[in-house]
Amino acid sequence: MALPPLPTEAIEIGAVVEDWRAAVSLAGDALVRSGAAKAGYAGEMIRMIEEHGPYVVIAPGLALAHARPGPDVLADGLAIIVLSEPVAFGHPHNDPVRVVLAIAIAKAGEHLAAVAGLANIFNDSTAIADLAAATTPEEVQRIMGVPS
Description:
The chain has helices at residues 20-33, 40-52, 111-121, 127-133, 137-144; strands spanning 11-15, 57-59, 62-66, 77-87, 97-104. By secondary structure, the protein is an alpha/beta fold.
C-alpha cells in the first residue's frame, strides 16, 4: 500500500497544546479537515493510548497516533502536527514528543502496511528533526515524500 495522502489541510505547524491528549485531538481535527475521519476518531485514538499506554511514541520526539478502522474512518488519511513545545506522553525513553502523526486507515488489512510505510520514512535519522523544524506544509509533504 502506498502511504495515505497528506493534504495541506491535514498539516499544522507551531501548534500549542497543554498535553498529549490535546495534541492527539488536534491530529484528529486535521484528519477531519482532510475528509479522512469523523470527529469521533480523535476520541478513539486517545482511548487507545489510555488503554494501552504510550506505545504510539515510536521514536524520540515522534508519536504515531491511530485507532482501528471503524465507522469514524471515512478514507485513508495522514495528518501531521508539529508542536511549538514538546509534550510528554509518558513514554520512558522517547518523551517528550514534538511531532504527532495520525493515520486513519479504512480497511483493517491495510493498517499494518501503512504503519510500516511510515516507519520506513523514519529510517532516515534526520526525518524527525527535519519535521520539527519545518515551516510550511509543503516542506512537511516533501520530507514525508507522500502525495498531497
